[in-house]
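Usage example:
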Amino acid sequence: ETGVTQSPTHLIKTRGQQVTLRCSSQSGHNTVSWYQQALGQGPQFIFQYYREEENGRGNFPPRFSGLQFPNYSSELNVNALELDDSALYLCASSLAVTSGQFFGPGTRLTVL
Amino acid sequence: GEDVEQSLFLSVREGDSSVINCTYTDSSSTYLYWYKQEPGAGLQLLTYIFSNMDMKQDQRLTVLLNKKDKHLSLRIADTQTGDSAIYFCAVLSGGYQKVTFGTGTKLQVIP
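Running the assembly step on the lines above writes:
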């Protein structure tokens, strides 16, 4: 059974650019959540997808958007990058959020 | 919205018990979790407890929940150097969608 994988591992962008981060969920998991973890902080909930529909959103602006595909893999897109978007972006999958989520290793995004 | 707080740092000697504490604000929180994050890695789910339980034990881990005081704790028995990591408390609220994490407690185990 494959765990949650994310790509790329690291990414460097400049302010104003756009970025797409990818996540493959654990086999059989139909729910994917994305989190932003700034240095020294806990993860902050961005949004959640369930069966290809957005199922909840945290306090992030519309330039953070996402997709979930029929195989339950997911993308996080961030437009008009700002310096404060520099963080570790974590994807987590679950069959039911109530029983806990399984996290990928994250994508470290640096915005210069 | 939900607010989850933890102390930032805990240092214990190898073989002792560690107790990591967490407080939260939303009384309607249903599930509460403990995650472990090692340097450069994602988060690993350690254990979770449903809000109608007071205690849950899983090998060296014991979770205590005081709903009245909105206080959650994680006790690690016989702490080992491999337990050195950041521990996050997390709370599920908002219609089974939003999980709110604390800022994490860095556990240092001294040999």
